[in-house]
Amino acid sequence: MEISLKGRRALVCGSSRGIGKAIAIALAGSGASVLLMSRDKDKLKEVISVLDTTSGQEHDFIVADFNEPHLVEKRINKYLESGKNIDILINNTGGPSPGLAFESEPELYQKAFSAHLIVNQILLQATLPHMQNQQFGRIINIISTSVKAPIPGLGVSNTIRGAVANWSKTISVELAGFGITVNNILPGLTKTDRLKSIIKNKAESESVTFMEMEDRMMKSIPVGRFAEPEEIADTVVFLASNKASYINGVSLAIDGGKTPVQ
Q1: Can you tell me which family this protein belongs to (predicted)?
Q2: Fewer CB within 10 A of the end CB, N or C, for the chain?
Q3: Owning domain of residue 219
């Protein structure tokens, strides 16, 4: 099945590395123009240099830190004032630090809520008028399988991811009449820097080596391996296309069958 996103423009958050970078590359490879957003200017320049331009795509980037929502709002509005619009919004940002829910300070919850849900809302409201006017839009949130089954040791993340999932389901109903779909991707254990950090922390807490913990975690996955970021990205491309026009309000786990409740 060939998918073309030629003529579409996608905003991909957290696109300087990991899953976000893979999504940006895949969307560009399908013909979309891509607006990258991250706080790391140098890495954004590296990513934009490898994006496909063979279909006449025009790529750009915005430097913004999701811990400063007011600056995110200022910079996306400035970009949109240039006359360019966003057809596909990919909300994606790194998860909060590990820790037990009951031990986490309230400030950690506030910070995570702001960086995830509040920034998502800002970007939604900035890009929505164009989507409504053209009766087409795709909003895809990269969250976590913790939406289905909380992950031990990720108390703040489990809480905030759940909030984002319910926000997404709510707006999927509200916006469906405009030809806009809203869906969540729930990546399982995927080969990213964050996964390395999680493995390292778990290994230290259980007094085993990194390789022992890595092997133990892979064996917990029915397919016996971690996901590649590109496997998440391929699903995003499909959901962003016209071929997924009747998929709305779902939370899709891409986890090799690990999550017990789908």
Answers
A1: Belongs to the short-chain dehydrogenases/reductases (SDR) family.
A2: N
A3: 192-226
